[in-house]
Design brief:
Strand content of chain B: 15-25%
Distance between the termini of chain A: 53 Å
Distance between the termini of chain B: 42 Å
Order of helices and strands of chain A: EE
Oligomer: heterodimer
Radius of gyration of chain B: 21 Å
Order of helices and strands of chain B: EEEEEEEEEEEEEEEHHEHEHHEHEHH
Structural class of chain A: mainly beta
Number of strands of chain B: 19
Number of helices of chain A: 0
Strand content of chain A: over 45%
Largest sheet of chain A: none
Largest interface: A-B, 20 and 66 residues
């Protein structure tokens, strides 16, 4: 028997604009 | 991160606009039937994709001819994800994958492309991918079926909207989640090199157990165990708040390895720091209560959780221990994160090492710390110099390639043997 298995994942967060130092 | 003002000039207002993102991801377990999950959980409006494809990355933004495969949602090529929601695709059959053991696709990357219709609104993303993905210019429309990467003018070191890849696999597959902060996310790992500690562990698990195990990464740089945090910051909600979605929401989950707590203690975020993301320095006792809450919730779902000891941050930002004040004066968040953070870290690690508090212990502290008293409790010197930005000094917090390799080698893989 088979089922869904996580194979790749990443955690969502809120975008902010990267400001170069 | 490349300057995203060019692909996303209105990132803080209307977001992406009529353009295509080609995200590069590395499956830990292959198969010929997959599905994708996209997230608009931090969005402020509905997000619509006109088209989505999966292909085998050839190199950079190019994919292997003949592998571009359409992805549907409720049998439709387009999908609209309401603000605050996630969405799974339909199962996708990949004709070019023979099986999980197909030697020609082991270790390869997928290129997952999706074209945004109109404005995306505020974008949900994962900042620290340490992996290059590709973006077409605003207003360029749908390039999801392009085999060549020419239209993908821009690069990013983040993953936008895409959060999960599932594969159909045997029900006795062991599924491990690496959960935590930047040290699990891979800060200072080798760009596009997949040398996070969890990648090293993955290699060992697959060597030992073949394709009966999958390990995925649910860490975020700057993440904390407990609140208060600013939930819509790039460092994500606290672990206690995101556990249900990010960890318990993983398909087939059996085990968690959890390394987190240094950001709660204030490393890099002390009294003099900008309190935008982490406004409070927590006590070890409050952090331990957060550990206990998460362990209990995982156990209620039949998931085992292995506590990882928190690695040294003793010299972080401390000029007396080598911090480079000349080149990085503005990054000096506190006068000294040394003694106070170290005292808290030792309390956390004593709890983590105490039998019964977790299902087992992964002693990353022992694997990385220099036992010589002259080292003042820092990591071993060979693990300190930054392996990604080779011209920059180290930060006494994130291990380098050698350090992450040592961490991956320190994990006892016996508990993760398939039945």
């Amino acid at each position: 028997p088979q089922h869904w298995v996580a194979s790749w994942a990443t955690s969502p967060a809120a975008y902010f604009v990267y400001v170069a130092p | 991160q490349p300057d995203l003002a060019f692909p996303f000039p209105n990132a803080n207002t209307s977001g992406a606009n009529d353009q295509t993102i080609r995200s590069i991801v590395k499956p830990d377990l292959w198969g010929n039937t997959m599905r994708l999950r996209f997230s608009n959980v931090f969005g402020n409006q509905a997000l619509t994709f006109d088209s989505t494809t999966i292909a085998l990355q050839e190199y950079a933004g190019n994919v292997v001819h003949g592998t571009v495969t359409p992805v549907t949602f409720g049998r439709s090529l387009s999908v609209t994800i309401p603000a605050g929601q996630e969405m799974w695709s339909d199962p996708v059959r990949l004709a070019w994958v023979r099986s999980a053991d197909d030697p020609l696709i082991q270790g390869r990357n997928l290129a997952i492309s999706y074209s945004i219709r109109g404005d995306s609104g505020h974008m949900t993303y994962h900042s620290g991918a340490n992996t290059t993905s590709y973006i077409t210019g605003p207003g360029t429309g749908d390039h999801t079926n392009d085999a060549d990467g020419f239209a993908y003018e821009y690069t990013t070191s983040s993953w936008f909207f895409l959060t999960t890849l599932d594969v159909m696999a045997s029900t006795d597959t062991v599924v491990i989640c690496a959960f935590g902060d930047s040290i699990t996310d891979g800060t200072h790992t080798t760009f596009n090199g997949n040398d996070r500690w969890a990648n090293v562990l993955s290699r060992r698990l697959h060597d030992a157990y073949g394709n009966k195990v999958s390990i995925v990464n649910e860490a975020i740089g700057g993440n904390r165990v407990i609140n208060p945090v600013v939930a819509n910051a790039a460092s994500g909600p606290a672990a206690v708040d995101r556990l249900d979605r990010d960890v318990l929401g993983l398909s087939g989950l059996t085990d968690v390895i959890w390394l987190e707590g240094i950001n709660d203690l204030g490393a890099g975020y002390g009294a003099a720091a900008n309190p935008v993301e982490n406004p409070v320095v927590h006590t070890p006792q409050a952090i331990i209560a957060g550990y206990q809450d998460v362990v209990a919730r995982l156990h209620r779902h039949g998931v085992k959780v292995y506590g990882a000891t928190v690695v040294s941050a003793l010299g972080l930002n401390n000029p007396a221990q080598g911090w480079d004040l000349i080149h990085f004066p503005s990054f000096l968040a506190t006068v000294d994160n040394g003694a106070a953070v170290e005292a808290g870290r030792l309390i956390l690690n004593q709890f983590i090492r105490t039998p019964g508090n977790f299902d087992g212990v992964v002693d990353f502290d022992a694997a990385t710390r220099d036992p010589d008293p002259a080292a003042l409790g820092n990591m071993k010197a060979k693990y300190l110099p930054n392996s990604q930005f080779t011209q920059l000094p180290w930060d006494y917090l994130h291990p380098n390639h050698a350090g992450y390799n040592a961490m991956g080698l320190a994990v006892d893989i016996a508990p993760f043997a398939p039945a």
